[in-house]
Amino acid sequence: MRGKLLVVGFGPGSFEHITKRAQVAIQESDYVIGYKTYVELIKDLLTDQEIISTGMSEEVSRAQAAVKYAEKGKKVAVISSGDAGVYGMAGLVYEVLVEKGWKEATGVEVEIIPGISAINSCSSLLGAPVMHDACTISLSDHLTPWAIIKKRIEAAGFGDFVIAFYNPKSGKRTRQIVEAQQILLKYRSPDTPVGLVKSAYRDSQHVVMTTLQHMLDFDIGMLTTVVVGNSSTFFYDNKMITPRGYQRKYTLNTEDQRLRPHERLRPENEPWALHEGKKENQNPADLAAADSTPIALAMEALQKIDGEENKDKLSIDNPAIAQPAVESIFELAVSPGVANKKFTPKQLLVLAEAAGENGTMEYTPHHQILLRLPTADPDAITKMLADAGFLLSPIGDVFQIKACDFCEGDKKDSIPHAEEIHRRLGGLDLPKELKLGFNGCGMACYGAVNEDIGIVFRKGMFDLFLGGKTVGRTAHPGQPVAEGIHPDKLVDVIEGIVKEYKENGHPNERFYKYFKRVQQVQGFKHKDITPVIELEPAPCGE
Ligand code: SAH
């Protein structure tokens, strides 16, 4: 059977605002995949669907899991709040499909189901602020360089758009909304109406009407949409209203109209329009000056002041704004080798040079240094480090091998096997990070048995441990599942286990959980022996 992906926008959050098609789509699916909070919001709609919910910034694994199950013939609903095509999952699902060479005619079926986006739901609570040309700008710079976001705010300010700011602020991202306000104050009056809507149509809904000048005096967070009016938006009786322009031709307070219907579209009655034969103004400032709105007057005035203050204002000639240099944070792990634990002084110098003034070098519990640095050229950095003899590994949800130092190389018999595992599997993307501990003798003093997968070399053969729980109060070692695996078989056995987990693990599911769920990996059986921890009464009383 051909699988299907239903990418569903379920609106702001209340049941009344979920479309009929979205409800049916969720109910007719085999799987529902979404961000935990959103799955919670729609849980009353669910019947017997299998749920896969993951945390924030797990969108990519959600999209990949959705595609995987659809390819197995399942109907999979991927849910987004608001509209799935507005900073939602729709684009990402297509991007994952594109990477796999998907074609509409032959691949899994895809249906994108529209929902009410925050710009619409929030505006309805404010009055009618988005009556005219408007735009949405997300202030999240996790995936978009801040220089580009700034340029868009400048452009929207200059273009007099009503703006809905999505993702305006979070615990860590607090400066973006402050800078956005500063930019807009260059183009708009401090009294410009602003609406702050938190959790529209959810239990904790909260609406604030304020102004551009005072907007930061109120609480703005992850669940807020900030709607900034244009130069003609006004407040009336606690409503935020943007006029459409009817007053240019109509009188709204009398039934008698100045212009008869047949006169309304005549050029002389629309002197502001672009008519046949009329020469178009090329210069944006001239264009603005042809109008008499406050923004136009402000633009004209600014043109006359050629002051320092305005040097970073939007202008086609300003290369800093037109082409921002894009740097991003590059992260990777470096170590001297799989078995080798010794850095040379020269390697440390190279590491310091790579980190530069702004990078950081973090010593981790995994026998490696985590390097984070801002760069526009990651390839140059990796070349420099590889040339210094470093072993480089990506970080995140990938396969990593943690070997011992084989008694400083004395017990070197199994090192080639550890290196071969690293060559075949190192850096492989997985549902969750997975560490394989590899120790060169039965002492296992580097704790291989405590990792997700443990391998111990003993009497010329390998012992295998699976499903260590490496963190938490209920941490426990892996289960011994095989003794005496022949060296010729080892790497294939490990590859089989890791690939099976890659294929069938749910996003974010740690290896020990996967092993427990499926009970058998590559023929190795799980034993249900969860350790019971009994707490002793505290000696100092309750
Ligand atoms: N796809 C969603 C947007 C996701 S981005 C949509 O179309 O609405 C997340 C941002 O959307 C939040 O930071 C907030 O700015 C906005 N948002 C989503 N739901 C909201 C709601 N119910 N009330 C207010 N803002 C909301």
UniProtKB/TrEMBL annotation:
UniProt-listed PROSITE patterns: NIR_SIR
Nitrite/sulphite reductase 4Fe-4S domain mapped to chain residues: 406-518
Coiled coil segments of this chain: none
Domain Tetrapyrrole methylase residue range list: 4-214
Keywords linked to the UniProt accession: 4Fe-4S, Cobalamin biosynthesis, Iron, Iron-sulfur, Metal-binding, Methyltransferase, S-adenosyl-L-methionine, Transferase
CDD domains per the UniProt record, alphabetical: Precorrin_3B_C17_MT
Region span, Disordered: 254-282
Record field: compositional bias (Basic and acidic residues): 255-281
SUPFAM superfamilies associated with the record: Nitrite and sulphite reductase 4Fe-4S domain-like, Tetrapyrrole methylase
Name of the protein in its database record: Cobalt-precorrin 3 C17-methyltransferase
Organism expressing this protein natively: Cytobacillus oceanisediminis
